[in-house]
Amino acid sequence: MTGSPPQPVAAALDSDYYRIGIDARRRAHTDLADVSDITDDLEHRIENLLQRTLELLDGAPKPEAQPHIEWVG
To answer: How far is CA 41 from CA 5, 6, 19, 35, 47, in A?
Structure first.
């Protein structure tokens, strides 16, 4: 395919274009300010659950140590 290269397009920007973008960034910065704290808390909870799960598994009887039950019917 040997088409011509794309040509630049002139776009007329609204006078509020930059203000709207800056306002959106400010809102996002405010709205997302606590995301880092939330993910840190979530990571801490996951680590605690993993540790508790490993403790439960360490205390669980091993498959070879479980008694064999035979049903008589």
So the answer is: 51, 49, 35, 10, 10
Measure the CA–CA gap between 71 and 68, rounded to whole angstroms.
10
Alpha carbons 4 and 9: distance in angstroms, whole number: 15
Task: Quickly list DSSP for 12-55.
Answer: PPPTTHHHHHHHHHHHHHHHTTTHHHHHHHHHHHHHHHHHHHHH
| Nearby residues of 14 by Cβ (< 8 Å), 6 or more positions away | 20
pTM over 0.70: no
Q: Say whether 11 sits in a helix, a strand or coil.
A: coil
Mean pLDDT is lowest, of 13-17, 20-24, 52-56, 62-66, for 62-66
- Give pLDDT tens digits for 24-41: 999 999 999 999 999 999
